[in-house]
Description:
Blueprint: H1 2-18, H2 23-39, E1 44-50, E2 55-60, E3 65-69, H3 70-75, E4 83-84, E5 89-90, H4 94-97, E6 106-110, E7 115-119, E8 125-129, H5 130-135, H6 141-147, H7 161-164, E9 170-172, H8 173-178, H9 180-192, E10 195-199, H10 207-215, E11 227-229, E12 245-248, E13 260-267, E14 276-280, H11 281-291, H12 293-299, E15 303-312, E16 315-324, E17 326-328, E18 334-337, H13 352-370, E19 375-378, E20 385-389, E21 393-397, E22 409-415, H14 417-431
Parallel strand pairs: 9-10
Antiparallel strand pairs: 1-2, 2-3, 4-5, 6-7, 7-8, 10-20, 11-22, 12-21, 13-20, 13-22, 14-19, 14-21, 15-16, 17-18
Helix pairs in contact: 1-2, 9-14, 11-12, 11-13, 12-13
Amino acid sequence: MLCRLKHICKFRFVTQRLLRVNTATARAKLTFATASSQSGALRVQSAHKANATRMLNVTWSNDTVNRYPFVYLRDNCQCSECFHETSLQRSFDTVGQLNSHIQPERVDVLQNGDQISITWPDKHVSVFNSNWLHSRRLPEEKDMSKERSTLRREGVKFWNAEQLQGKIPRYDFQEVIEDDFKLFEWLQSLHSVGIALVTNTPRQPGELNKLCSRVGYSKTTHYGHQFEVHAKFDANNLAYTSHFLPLHVDLPFYDYVPGVQLLHCIEQVKSEGGGNQFVDGFHVAEELKEKDLEAFKLLSSVRFQFVDLGKDVFGEFHKKFGRLMIELDENEQIVRFSYNNHVRDSVMLVSPEKAVQLYEAYLTIGTMLRNPANQIEHKMVPGDVITFNNSRVLHGRSSFTITGESQRFLQGIYLDWDGVYSRIRVLAKRFNIPFRI
Length: 437
């Protein structure tokens, strides 16, 4: 029941953001859902030692059963001798002290099922709270196989033009700066749909630093601590021209690619053009898997080489890295989509026959990316900050003409997902909102 309530809470939350329900309503519903989860907190009904398999079988108050290896329980003892209280780090010497064949002498259920006490052969006692133990239950192989049936990780919502055109989640700049719940909603949208708009931002350089400081810190690249996007003479990047900019993700030639990009519109051309296009690479990858499985397998198993050479604020640079266009995790769920035609290297580390197959797959998915049914468009106005998952959402730009009356000037900055997820977890705990990533 608790698991189901958690999923209901997450479903309601994401739906509210897509429909832009006001904060008061969202808070009320989240409070109700989390309160319901708390009232139904699971307790231990029984704990049985299965010495043959070296497992502790725990039956919960909803009659579900989870198995915990004895070696796992001893390694994760939470007493002050084994776990440092202020640093919240393990002080138990796993390699020096742990016996992989260890079995407990005694197991007791305490406090009406709120705790389990385990006495080990050396008389050391480990006490585990039921909530702590349940939150760390190990998945069974059959459950993991179910996860592998979909490309979608928990809480991630794929989208196309019909679902998101004109419906990009929006947040007010000052509210994100001042309200931690709004900050959580903004970051949660970046996790779930991969794109969000922050509006009413002061129309001056430097405002992105304020947003970044709400999360943690920005990521510096060879283009600077932050970067400016406007037409330049002798541009060292296609983004610094007024030409059409095809769909792409930024900096795929980095081993550790910047996770989130923020673009602040300070000036915008009044003439036609200069609008941005966005595509959910995860959605297109899923479409490709359904329509052309062989192309999907090729693009998720053969690396493209990416390269960037030039000179910028930190001097000359020569970046290069090889990566898959479609990157999957151990559960075969998509975690990164890397497509950038203008920095794709001419070097190909495959056979001639494989190169031909790779081109066919590349053209297939490239055509799908350009399908209007998969693209949304938004022309930013001064004060807009478009924020998006740089490992998922491709962005492009239509060409524009600079006149004496108007120019196009954006300022950009990057965040890493490590920092974003850290802030989401901290805020989720504060607001008592389940978040498992």
